[in-house]
Amino acid sequence: MNIVRFINQLIFKKVLEILVVLFLIFLALFLISRKSFQEIFEEISYFKAMNYTQLYTEIHESFYKVHIVNETYTKETFHLIMHIQEDFINPEWIQLNINGTFFSLHDFEKKAENTFLILNDFIVAAEETYTIQIIYKNVLFLNADFYLENILRI
Fold first, then answer.
1. Hey, what long-range contacts does 11-15 have (CB within 8 A, 24 or more apart)?
2. β-sheet bridge partners, residue 112
3. Structure letter (DSSP) for residue 30
């Protein structure tokens, strides 16, 4: 008699599991049918392509203050690109002071005409601040743009 009761309990548990799985399948189908597949894939691709690292630039009288912020726990690599807006400037005469360290512009990879990769780093749940001075022929120069490129989420 105990064996029959045990078998009945096992059968009841399996039937209950099957009913729960069927309920979840029907619930998922109902939710999917309320939205088109195109909308679902657009939402998925939006979050997949989204980058969480942001760039904020402050222009002061003699320097730029560049803030790179990632407020999530995703590890993202980034390239900080500097584009000098003047075409007539010779890069050999430009020095950069980044957080107190001096560099020649030739120390950096040239991406395009007057565009240089000045920082290649990663960031996770932090804000990095860089103070950048551009010195052209021993005179401070404030005619550049900064932007992020090639952000890769890891």
1. none
2. 115
3. H
> Contact at 8 Å (CB) between 58 and 108?
no
Comparing CA positions, the residue from 84, 86, 100, 93 lying closest to residue 133 is: 100
Helices and strands (DSSP H and E) totals, the chain:
2, 10
Ramachandran bin of 25, using left for φ above 0, alpha for ψ from -120 to 50, beta for the remaining angles: alpha
Segment holding 133, helix H or strand E: strand 126-136
For 94, the token pair is: 């430009």
pTM of the predicted model over 0.85: no
Q: Over the stretch 42-59, which tens digit does the pLDDT of each residue have?
A: 776 766 666 678 888 999
Q: What is the pLDDT of residues 111-132, one digit of tens each?
A: 888 889 998 888 888 899 999 9
Return the structure tokens found at 125. Answer: 């749940």
Measured CA distances, 85 to 72, 74, 76, 95 (Å): 33, 33, 28, 16
Q: What is the DSSP letter of 100?
A: T
Please name the amino acid found at residue 52: Y
Contacts of 86 (CB under 8 A, 6+ apart): 114, 143
Tokens of 143: 């005619």
